[in-house]
Design goal:
Number of helices: 6
Helix content: over 70%
Strand content: under 5%
Mean pLDDT: 92
Number of domains: 2
Low-confidence stretches: none
Structural class: mainly alpha
Number of strands: 0
Order of helices and strands: HHHHHH
Shape: globular
Radius of gyration: 18 Å
Length: 187
């Protein structure tokens, strides 16, 4: 396996995760700003690795496998940190919905690929919108302090609840698309 730039950027996103965790727990006033900076840097690598891979035809099977894994690891760890710091039912429920959907859709995609029906579960516009709301919400919630008189936590909560709603909607879309293959009799 040869490592190309997009794959290195994806691996960098994975390396950022433990650094983000350590900084999250540092007892300094600036740690939340650094955590958000790390989260944004990880998001930029996510955008950059895909753009570079497509633009310069550097796609690889390993990169295609690793990219969504890195995304899900980053989101899962960030949501766990947020819920641990702010143990509220609304945040916990939204995080559970988002994580449950990610596990379900990952398994569905793997199964659909195994039966040759991967195209049925392509990323939808609702799924992309969910990702935007989710990532912005996580950034606000990781920061967690008022900023320029903005109620950062309230904004983050609202955005995460919207992301959870979009999460359910996108999961229904994926399941409906896959339903014919799910219910088809196999011999």
């Amino acid at each position: 396996m040869t490592l190309n730039l997009p794959t290195v950027l994806t691996l960098l996103r994975i390396v950022i995760i433990p650094v983000l965790v350590v900084v999250f727990y540092l007892p300094y006033g600036w740690s939340n700003e650094v955590v958000v900076g790390l989260f944004i840097a990880a998001g930029i690598t996510d955008w950059a690795d895909g753009w570079i891979a497509r633009r310069y035809e550097m796609m690889s099977p390993f990169g295609a496998f690793l990219d969504p894994v890195a995304d899900k690891l980053l989101v899962a760890v960030a949501l766990v940190l947020i819920v641990q710091k702010h143990p509220e039912i609304l945040l916990a429920l939204a995080a559970a919905i988002i994580l449950g959907r990610e596990i379900t859709i990952s398994a569905l995609r793997e199964w659909m690929a195994e039966i040759g029906q991967r195209a049925r579960v392509r990323v939808s516009a609702v799924g992309k919108s969910k990702t935007v709301f989710q990532m912005v919400a996580i950034g606000f919630l990781l920061y967690g302090e008022p900023l320029l008189d903005l109620p950062v936590m309230t904004i983050g909560r609202v955005l995460l609840v919207i992301a959870a709603g979009l999460t359910i909607w996108s999961m229904v879309i994926y399941l409906r698309s896959a339903w014919p293959a799910i219910t088809a009799e196999r011999s």
